Amino acid sequence: MEPHTPRKKVEAERFAREIAQALDESVVSGACERLVLVAPPAFFGVLRDKLPLRVAARVTDVIEKDYLHLDQPTLKKRLEKALEAR
Q1: From first to last of its 86 residues, what are the pLDDT tens digits of the chain?
Q2: What angle do CA 28, 47, 30 make, to 5 degrees?
């Protein structure tokens, strides 16, 4: 018998697979040359494990922050500031 996996972890892994697949399709179609990934630290670990090598190779920056609570104008300012500092 396998140990019980918490539902939250199962859903995070499923969501990470969906994101990884969408990013892979974008890379294959030539829709993106570089990627900046923004995700909360705990989720980024899950996502990183699901990314195909060709997607990971296009990641130029990683911002491990939880910005889900921000409105769009504030999010834009925070991302611009974070990317300028790099």
Answers
A1: 567 778 999 999 999 999 999 999 999 999 999 999 999 999 999 999 999 999 999 999 999 999 999 999 999 999 999 999 88
A2: 15
Domain spans, the chain? 7-84
Paired tokens of 42: 């705990």
Report yes or no on whether pTM surpasses 0.90: no
User: Cα–Cα distance between 51 and 66 in angstroms, integer?
Assistant: 20
